[in-house]
Amino acid sequence: MKKKLLVAFVFGCLFVFSACSPPSTPPKPVLISSSQLVFYTNAVLRLLTSTNDSLTYQPADYQVSVNRIVYQTTLTDGTTITASGIVYLPNQLDSTSNRYPLLSFQHPTAFSNTEVPSGTNFGAASFSYPLYFATHGYIVACPDYIGYGAADHVPHNYEHRQTLAQATVDMMLATKAFLAQKGVPWTNQLFLAGYSEGGFATLSAQQLLEEKYGQELPLSGSSCGAGPYAMSDFFRYVTQNTTVGGIANYIYAWETLSYNRIYGLNKPVSYYFKAPYAEQITQSLDSTRSITASFDQLCTDEFRADVRNPLSPFGKALADNDLTTWHTATATQLIHSQQDEIIPFLTSQQTYTAMRQRGSANLHLVAIPSGSHVPTEVLFMRRSLDWFEQLKK
């Protein structure tokens, strides 16, 4: 990851939880600009092949315009910031007047600007998940998130519910304005999809949409894959049980230090992690990838106790990012492999149980029997498309 995304992980603002809540009446996002990056003809799309045999890619007679939009959103303290994203506009050769639904696609964990939607090299056409959805008849909006793209001058608030939700919702509103500006009609159906951090971003945005934007952006369906929605239980698990090390350590440490900064806990790295790991993480968070020990072996006793204590400052930060305490009226599926080694299946299972108990009658749990975290993303895309096709008008 670029150093500028890591510098501010540890130090932050004063510890006031209310300061990390969105303003009661946030300003509406403003579509600042839009530009077409590339136009893929049907002939070009037909030359592309899927990256996995289990994901059928059939561009049929589609052609796709790829556009970058820049828009205004708000941070958790209420200040405005410029953000960016990509919008894929499909149309068909035999009928240029077709209307398509809008799908907001939230990307998984990105470690640099080159891994977010607007960092793609569109000059060299290649298969992608947004393109997969676009060539099945969806207008696809892809937020970069805060910390990337036009907003890469501030750190990314990794797995932070409010930041991800607001940037995603504002991207949808800006996309709606973009479509109106371009005179592009759509079906007024809206779908959400995302995997890993994108799954967490999707369910976070879904909650915000239903609570505050139901009239402007009514949801038709949502598909969330392998996100740490039950955040308190997720952290209890990874700090108390054996985990795989490597990239998992990077992800868990990044999230820990992000919460330390966002919620103004101001603890040194050595408060969370033992020697010699604390020194290594302080020098380079990226080097955490090389630590093969289980994450629970990196953690100090004080940190592990904080995770178990819901009244501790860190326990409250976890609770603030927990997505199990509400109910949804939207047709929603949670897709997760039971053998996921990075985000344990229990996060989806417990979220499903808790939300169903609160009245989420249209919530469904799709348990994939086998498969590790990254390969299961392919199955998620296929199952999501099938789900949306059932819900389309």
TrEMBL record:
Q: Name one GO molecular function term.
A: triacylglycerol lipase activity
Q: Which SUPFAM superfamilies does the annotation name?
A: alpha/beta-Hydrolases (SSF53474)
Which residues constitute the signal peptide according to the record? 1-19
Q: Which GO terms describe its biological process?
A: lipid catabolic process
Spell out the Pfam families in the cross-references.
LIP
UniProt keyword annotations, A-Z = Hydrolase, Signal
Question: What is this protein identified as?
Answer: Alpha/beta fold hydrolase
The organism named in the record is Spirosoma agri
